[in-house]
Amino acid sequence: MIKATLVPGDGTGPEIVEVARKIIEFTADLCGIPVQWEVKEAGIPAYEKYGDPLPQETLESIKRNKILFKGPITTPVGTGYRSVNVAIRQKFKLYAIVRPAKSIPRFSSKFPNVDLVTIREGTEEFYSGIEHRVNTVDEDRIAAESIGVVTKRACEKIVTFSFEYAKKYGRKKLTAVHKANILKETHGLFRDVFYEIAKKYPEFEVDDRMVDNMTYQLVTKPELYDVLVSPNLVGDIISDLTAGLVGSLGVVPSANIGDEYAMFEPIHGSAPKYAGQNKVNPTAQIMAGVMMLRHLGLMEMADLIEKATFKVIEEGKSVTYDIARVYGVQPVGTKEMGDAIIEKIKEYYHKS
């Protein structure tokens, strides 16, 4: 059974969530799997309605269902409420942020053989929210300070999670990504823990890279890497880079996983300027659903949706504008791409 809290988000979130929901429900019906959504609000709609971007009833729903399937949510820059995503991660101790980037045939033409997973610690370091302005009285000496907290316990949890993830999904190599040459204590602790935990998993190849070198490695020889594990800020940056390798933020999902709860969403933002235009690519939201299904142990259903989605993109006949411009073809809308994926699911299902 699929039982989850569903938050459409804001901006283009409701449009892509509706497409992903329709695909999941259709495939679940084919496979005889019941689906139960509990729809709640967060982000701008909740803020306007309740004065709170993350209302208590939404939190209670997540507590009940343990699984959150979420659309993108706008985070104000500089002012306004803090990130809803960060708040959810901290509230439910979602310490592992997992972002796979896999080449799609034909579409990922620059890097056709990428199959990477970035796993980053999601609750600490510079996302802890410990920051302030100093010397605010003297205009000429105003400064700002952020404090990045890294604990051994959190390092142990994320590194152990990464090795266990690699074991579950048949991965072979893990690389710790850090900036320990400069951040000697925080990132140095992370690197030390990585090698300490690695001793318990001798079946894996392990190494480490400083983040600046890692970016170079990824755009020159990404095929040498498999699972990348890192502190929070480094992983946030690296995962966007790996999305670029496979062609777009619009095709890459994200999972936020803890010991008891999990959240699944696209890697990209809410793109409010495109809201209501039936224009944006739903792939990342659909693939977030695929990650959710695998987390729930519904592997065959997840594989069917992924295969159909990738094939529709590869064929390039019913794709949104961002993919269509790569192929030089006429685009279709968000809903129409979703309908094409459903037709492909039908085709594959009846062949199996």
What key phrases describe this protein's structure?
352 residues; alpha/beta; Isopropylmalate Dehydrogenase; Rossmann fold; 2 domains; 10-stranded mixed sheet; two-stranded antiparallel ribbon; 12 strands; 43% helix; 18% strand
CATH class of the largest domain: Alpha Beta
Strand content: 15-25%
Number of spatially distinct domains:
2
Compute the CA-based radius of gyration. Answer: 20 Å
Strands across the major sheet, in which order? 2-1-3-12-11-4-5-10-8-9
Residue runs with pLDDT of under 50 for 5 or more positions: none
Overall mean pLDDT stands at 94
> Which CATH architecture of the largest domain is right?
3-Layer(aba) Sandwich
The SSE order reads EHEHHEHEEEEHEHEHEHEEHHHH
In CATH, the homologous superfamily of the largest domain goes by the name Isopropylmalate Dehydrogenase
Q: What structural class do the secondary elements suggest?
A: alpha/beta
Count of DSSP strands: 12
Shape: globular
The major pleated sheet works out as: 10 strands, mixed
What percent of the residues sit in helical stretches (DSSP H or I)? 40-55%
Q: Which fold name corresponds to the CATH topology of the largest domain?
A: Isopropylmalate Dehydrogenase
- The N- to C-terminal Cα distance equals 22 Å
Number of helices: 12
